[in-house]
């Protein structure tokens, strides 16, 4: 199975800050990775697919990069509505595996 | 608009059974693979099972293999998850999620709002 190690597990940031979240895969997964945002009590929402492609309707302050084993999600200027938990998901092979999540909190 | 609505959750005793359903609308259900993902209270997301559009290809997480059965009724536009021999560690919100392809790609693009399953005596 492919393990996804996500870091940090939580971070505190202010509105306007640049935020970077990292996921590392235990083996190469090409660009078969998505990023999801989840707010409390809500279903996850896909932000990024194919590691760097922005889902339709998602603000351009979100971006993804990486290939192989290391991936990043960047929020260029954190907005109040961005405080949430973020997950990566590899879909290179089954079982599908998620990172442990990063909770982005208000500083 | 794609809609996924889960139902069937509730309180069940350890060793018991429960059947979850996901009613869908807004897309041609028979053309897309479907998935179940769960989230234990206060924990992260865990993939559970996937089924291809025709039902021919199915995958399960090791944690549920042999106890859970995924199925679909393309005539009724619904996805099901039969859960047997339930354990306390199966307690979670269960989400159904749509794959944007008939093949199993793992691209979980659309999600329902989830149904809570609680396994407790």
Describe the protein's architecture and organization:
- The complex is a heterodimer of chains A (107) and B (121).
- With 107 residues, chain A is mainly beta.
- Chain A is built from no helices and eleven strands.
- In chain A, strands 2, 4, 5, 6, 9, 10 and 11 form a seven-stranded mixed sheet that branches. In chain A, strands 1-3-8-7 form a four-stranded antiparallel sheet, with no helix packed on it.
- The mean pLDDT of chain B is 96.
- Chain B has strands at 3-7, 10-12, 18-25, 34-39, 45-51, 58-60, 68-73, 78-83, 92-98, 110-111, 115-119.
- In chain B, a hairpin with a 5-residue loop joins strand 4 and strand 5 (45-51).
- Chain B is globular.
Question: Secondary-structure map with pairings?
Answer:
The complex is a heterodimer of chains A (107) and B (121).
Chain A: E1 4-7, E2 10-13, E3 19-25, E4 33-38, E5 45-49, E6 53-54, E7 62-67, E8 70-75, E9 85-90, E10 97-98, E11 102-106
Parallel strand pairs in A: 2-11
Antiparallel strand pairs in A: 1-3, 3-8, 4-5, 4-9, 5-6, 7-8, 9-10, 9-11
Chain B: E1 3-7, E2 10-12, E3 18-25, E4 34-39, E5 45-51, E6 58-60, E7 68-73, E8 78-83, E9 92-98, E10 110-111, E11 115-119
Parallel strand pairs in B: 2-11
Antiparallel strand pairs in B: 1-3, 3-8, 4-5, 4-9, 5-6, 7-8, 9-10, 9-11
């Amino acid at each position: 199975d492919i393990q996804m190690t996500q870091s940090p597990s939580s971070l505190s940031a202010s509105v306007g800050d640049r935020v970077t979240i990292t996921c590392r895969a235990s083996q190469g997964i090409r660009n078969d990775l998505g990023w999801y945002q989840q707010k409390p009590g809500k279903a996850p929402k896909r932000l990024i697919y194919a590691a760097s492609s922005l889902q339709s309707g998602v603000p351009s302050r979100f971006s993804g990069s990486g290939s192989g084993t290391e991936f990043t999600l960047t929020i260029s200027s954190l907005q109040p509505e961005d405080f949430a938990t973020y997950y990566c998901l590899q879909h290179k092979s089954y079982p599908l595996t998620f990172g442990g999540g990063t909770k982005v909190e208000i500083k | 608009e794609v809609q996924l609505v889960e139902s069937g959750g509730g309180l069940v005793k350890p060793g018991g059974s429960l059947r979850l359903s996901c009613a869908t609308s807004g897309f041609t259900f028979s053309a897309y693979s479907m998935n179940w993902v769960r989230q234990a209270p206060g924990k992260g997301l865990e993939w559970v099972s996937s089924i291809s559009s025709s039902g021919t290809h199915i995958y399960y997480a090791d944690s549920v293999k042999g106890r859970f059965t995924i199925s679909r009724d393309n005539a009724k536009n619904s996805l099901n998850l039969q859960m047997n021999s339930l354990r306390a560690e199966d307690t979670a919100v269960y989400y159904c999620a749509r794959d944007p392809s008939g093949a199993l790609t793992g691209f979980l693009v659309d999600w329902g709002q989830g149904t809570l399953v609680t396994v407790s005596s």
